[in-house]
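Entry:
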Amino acid sequence: MNLIITGTSGVGKSFLEEELEKTGKFYPIPKYTDRPLRSNEDPSKIISLTNPVFQKLQTQNNFFFSLSYSGHNYGWAKKDLNKFKNKFATLAVTLDSLFDFFKTSQPFLPILLNIKVDNLFLLKNRLSKRGDNPDQIKTRLSLARNEIKNIQKYKTLVKKHHGLIFNITDNQTIFTEIIPQITSLPSVQSLLD
């Protein structure tokens, strides 16, 4: 059971991917992008390409899914989809791209991470620790507020595809609620046995 993780901007989608990988039963599908890597990003998990190289791969139909976000392109290669036989694949995408993803007919269980406006300070702290500058943080928080206003349509889509919805209430929610629920799913349990 592969997972597609989505949620409001800065909510911890990539962080959840990293923590699921630590269980030994999931692997994040490497992400190709035409943006420069951040200093804290692993170049084996996020592959930075020039825009012409990215466009060539996309034109040659190398990606099973791609999206544009904040002026950059991102893609996940078909060759990486079933990289490990005894692990489930994960990918993290923006809320807006979730509708396009389900047009691909890929068998992924959606996981939606939501946050309430009252808890946006958690995002601000997370983005600060990551090294985002004040303008980037302001932009991301504004985006998150807009996404929160429109979250119901994404919740409806996730429910339609039998996914799971979680509310981030503190920095421990991923550890105390989300990972335990995901790892207790019957298909994941069959790998653990």
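The beta strands are 2-7, 26-28, 31-33, 46-48, 63-69, 72-77, 88-92, 108-115, 164-168.
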